[in-house]
Structure formats: C-alpha cells, structure tokens
Amino acid sequence: MLTLEWESEGLQTVGIVVIIFASLKLLHLLGLIDFSEDTVEDEMEMATVRHRPEALELLEAQSKFTKKELQILYRGFKNECPSGVVNEETFKEIYSQFFPQGDSTTYAHFLFNAFDTDHNGSVSFEDFVMGLSILLRGTVQEKLNWAFNLYDINKDGYITKEEMLDIMKAIYDMMGKCTYPVLKEDAPRQHVETFFQQKMDKNKDGVVTIDEFIESCQK
User: Fold this and answer.
1) Nearest Cα to 20, choosing from 121, 141, 134?
2) Which residues form the EF-hand domain (predicted)?
C-alpha cells in the first residue's frame, strides 16, 4: 500500500502516515499497551528522576489525553527512560529496532528534532505527550502544522526542495526493502521534483510557506 501511495501524488500523505506509524511503534516499545492501573499515580509522585513531569492536571489541560491515559503514558516513558528524558541516540536505537530492514538513523534524527520543541537536545515527557497529542488526536490543521515543522529542517519558516528531499530520502531509507516492487534510487528526487514544483510552490519562488503547504495537503 505504501508503494502505491509513493507511486501517486500523495507525497505529503506518505510522510504524515510514516510519522504517525513510527510514533505508534514508539508507544508499543514503551510498553503502553498495558492498561493496568497499579500504582502509576504514586510512581509519578515519588519518582526521583532528573526531570520531573508537570502536574497531570496541567498536561491533561494542555493535551488531548485523559488523566488515565497520561498515567499509562508516563509508566511506559519512565520504564524505558528512567532519567525522565530521551536523547537522540536513544531515539535512534528505538527506531532501529522497528525498522531493521532499513536505515532509520536520519529519519529518527529529523523526528527527534521535531519532538524537541525547545531544541535543548532532549525530549522530555511533556515534549513527548504534546507531540503525540497532535499526531494522534489533533485537528487536520494541527497535524499539518506539525508536519511542516518536521519538513522545515532549519526552522526558518520555509521548506526548500532540498529539505523535502532530505526528509523523503530518510523515509525511503528507513522503509528499506519492505516496499514491493523495490523503488528506484532516484524515486524520492523524482517525486519531490514533481510534487514540490507542480503542487506546492505556487508562486515558483523556490520555497514553500506554511500556507502553501497546508493548502496543497488539504487539496
């Protein structure tokens, strides 16, 4: 199915689908399929970690998760990341386990930077929750804003053809041999050339603004 989408004009859809798919895989790795209550709330109160999460009530108000869901999220996060934060190397290790058929290093780097909203080199529980809240339960507008931030690698408010190509190459590298038939090496560049020039860069100035990005994706 992914191959069929790559063969079509739905370039932006592939990127967003892989973002959400990879995030769900991360949830699975963190053990978030266990919905038992036990003493999660007590653990949050007594955990001695270097980075303590904000109060559940505040996160509940800021995100689209319930208090129970946040407790479950925190349990998995704490079990996998006792320090309370995730660094980039841990992020890469997580994705390498779920995409062994390809090289997920570059994609994990880009995705880590998208989750690391304050650019301090680590992803806290709050960063993780807010990113997942958008990806899993946000509006179309919110999800597209998040995706734009992912593609805007240097965070200057524009997406260049080179940035989009870097992201798409990273996605293709990560998926590796799981596509059938195997795509040609120049497939990412061909798709970016077609989609960027014909669908996104409306005024032909060589960059895509967030308005152009959202308008193109919604169409």
Assistant:
1) 134
2) 103-138, 139-174, 187-219
